[in-house]
């Protein structure tokens, strides 16, 4: 990761306290303090960003896709979506969004899922689950602590029969989504390394993480 100083791409104005570029295929994490805003920038477009959320004070309180979907009454995430823990507690809220549709159903790729979906020749490929385990270990987390995840910028339409598709993203170069922390929130990210489906246009690229304090 390389630290940058250009703050022009923060979606919500404020004092910049963190501004980092996450390399293609790499993990990232930070604790975003309550009230601060994390802007995720899709630098080159069509790059999926897998994300896990935890209460920084108690990592047993973690993001729940079922709770979030049930409370908001829709599948896709966008401006106004409250990202909730399985307790119902609000972890973060999407306060601005230039894409309009983000996925919380498709899950995270792994060596096992790659092998099942795309064949044995993909077994050696690094996946988001491996990134989560590597980065989570820095915060005392292991495989038992992994939960449902968000896929920022990823387009996963649901067919009438309930099947999930993975198709080209709706994002573009420089598109952003901004999340306000409702409590001190540990954010784990895997800048998705997937090269076997269109979620990254078959070519993973860097993203940018900017934290501002209004």
Automatic annotation (TrEMBL):
Pfam families: DUF1989 (PF09347). Residues 20-186 form the DUF1989 domain. It comes from the Bacteria. InterPro entries: DUF1989, UAAP2. Coiled coil: none annotated. This is DUF1989 domain-containing protein. It comes from Mycolicibacterium monacense.
């Amino acid at each position: 990761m390389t630290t940058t100083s250009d703050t022009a791409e923060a979606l919500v104005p404020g004092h910049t306290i963190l501004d980092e570029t996450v390399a293609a295929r790499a993990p990232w994490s930070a604790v975003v303090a309550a009230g601060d805003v994390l802007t995720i920038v899709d630098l080159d477009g069509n790059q999926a960003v897998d994300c896990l959320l935890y209460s920084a004070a108690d990592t047993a309180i973690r993001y729940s896709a079922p709770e979030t979907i049930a409370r908001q009454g829709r599948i896709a995430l966008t401006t106004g979506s409250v990202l909730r823990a399985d307790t119902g507690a609000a972890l973060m809220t999407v306060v601005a969004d230039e894409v309009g549709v983000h996925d919380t159903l498709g899950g995270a790729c792994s060596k096992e899922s790659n092998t099942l979906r795309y064949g044995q020749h993909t077994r050696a490929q690094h996946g988001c689950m491996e990134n989560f385990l590597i980065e989570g270990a820095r915060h005392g987390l292991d495989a038992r602590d992994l939960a449902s995840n968000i896929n920022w910028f990823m387009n996963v339409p649901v067919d009438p029969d309930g099947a999930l598709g993975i198709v080209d993203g709706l994002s573009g170069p420089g598109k952003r989504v901004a999340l306000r922390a409702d409590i001190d929130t540990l954010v784990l990210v895997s800048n998705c390394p997937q090269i076997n489906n269109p979620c990254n246009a078959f070519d993973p690229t860097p993203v940018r993480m900017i934290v501002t304090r209004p």
